[in-house]
Every structure is written in structure tokens, then in C-alpha cells.
Amino acid sequence: MTERRSADGRRQWKVPCMLGVQGEQTRSEIVQVTVCQEEAPRVEFGERLEADELVVLFWGMQRDGETYAGLSFRAERLGTPGARKAQAQASASAA
Predict the structure, then answer these.
(1) Which candidate in 15, 28, 56, 86 could, as Cys together with 20 as Cys, close a disulfide (CB 3.0–4.6 Å)?
(2) How confident is the model at residue 68, as a pLDDT?
């Protein structure tokens, strides 16, 4: 996990994750998901995560006559399925 700062000074964390896709062909890729929050996300190696409001951005650029393109992943929050369920229950009982 690496920390960066946005142009406006907010902390950004790049978290390596395995993104799984199911459908006609099941496959997975290792990607980095950027999360903007003050504290580093608490994640363990190999832990299953869920992302709130996962956004995928396509980017492209040219440098030295070569064209590069890729995908960038951003989420509002990362968490484990169990932690998210406990948080939702706590919010519901507080209301």
C-alpha cells in the first residue's frame, strides 16, 4: 500500500487488490484501487474486500511517440464484508 496526496492535499492510498469478474469466463486481475481517506485502510493480505462506489476510469497518453492506455480504479471506501455488515447494523440500531 502506498500513500500519495491529491492536488488539494487529501491523503490517497493505493491498495493492491485482486479484482474478480464472473460471467461466461471467470477471471481475475491484480489492480490498484485508490481510496481517499485520512487513515490507511486496514486490510490483510489475501483478505476478501468490498468497495463502495467503485469507479473505473480509462486513461490514455502519448510519450516519445508511443501510445499508452490503461484503467484506473477508485473507491469511496474499502472494507471486509463482515466489517461492512457490522457497520450497517450499528448504524441501523443507532437510528
Answers:
(1) 28
(2) 92
66-75 and 27-36 beta bridge pairing: parallel
Cβ-contact 19, 73 below 8 angstroms: yes
Q: To which H or E segment does residue 90 belong?
A: helix 81-94
- Which residue bears the cell 485508490? 34
C-alpha cell, 7: 492536488
The answer for residues whose C-beta is within 8 angstroms of residue 26's C-beta and 6 or more apart is 20
Beta-ladder partners of 68:
61
Q: What are the counts of helices (DSSP H) followed by strands (DSSP E) for the chain? A: 1, 7
Q: What is the DSSP letter of 43?
A: -
